């Protein structure tokens, strides 16, 4: 049987000791929980099937154009007219695609807000679904600043629009791919006032609950989250809150494309949109670069602007996601998921 048979905790003491100082500072910021000291990996590595098909070719210029167009709407916090304009912008790019709208009202500490997840579905020949997600809202407490979340939300939302271009009009000889633009990911009150997990992830949690109730979740083979990976200085973390074997697949995809130097030099433990799927037993991987500027200084500040991004980073992130999907298509069987 292929797959992970035994897990062990491997202590990366020396590397992590060097990182400890920065990590402690990062941990004080809300997305991170306690600084981790161990990474789970397989003793017997996952076997990766060969992939002799043509390499993925993201159009990075077009992805960057989408990012620029999204940020031009300005701040897009829940309940704002800009938020509605961005929803309409996505819909205009997904005309003719199979789209599921998931709209509901979120009860938040600062009132009730309309929330709108958008799901574009690209069918495959194989039974099962791979989800690629990105949130698109901007941080509500920063709504009266010039904060536009160029990297945090816009970069990956634009990336998903380009992934839609790559998937559209082709017969997928593999799993169905669903692209999810999830909403109300950001906290509604400052994280100094309330725990991030109690006041965030409203949209993606709603989708996970809905798909659990209607049986969709059983068909989801993997959940891949893209967050803050348009950073020109791209260093994607290995996330300890993700599924180890799926992180291994992402690492293999990066290696095959020659992008491995941008992946997993640093280990982190991130609370993010993947947790509602992880908690419901879906193998999940959070692709996040949580060092955005020295000591993450641009994160959740008006300095999160497009000049910090690069088309090359979007290309690396997008191609690795596409290659990860292709490897998953061919892995037979996938390591078992738990409890969904
Ligand atoms: Zn954010």
Topology of this protein?
Elements: E1 7-11, H1 13-27, E2 38-42, H2 60-72, H3 81-93, E3 98-108, E4 111-122, E5 124-135, H4 150-167, E6 172-182, H5 202-213, E7 220-227, E8 236-239, H6 244-257, E9 263-268, H7 275-279, E10 284-288, H8 311-330
Helix pairs in contact: 2-4, 2-8, 4-8, 6-8
The chain binds zinc ion.
**Sheet with the most strands?**
6 strands, mixed
Average pLDDT: 88
Work out the oligomeric state of the chains in this entry: single chain
Number of separate helices: 8
Total count of strands: 10
What is the overall silhouette? globular
Helix and strand string, N-terminal first?
EHEHHEEEHEHEEHEHEH
* Estimated radius of gyration: 19 Å
Strands side by side in the biggest sheet: 3-4-6-5-7-10
Rounded to the nearest angstrom, the distance between the terminal CA atoms is 21 Å
Helix content: 25-40%
Bound molecule types: zinc ion
Helix/strand/pairing category: alpha/beta
Query: What percent strand?
Result: 15-25%
Uncertain parts: 1-30, 32-37
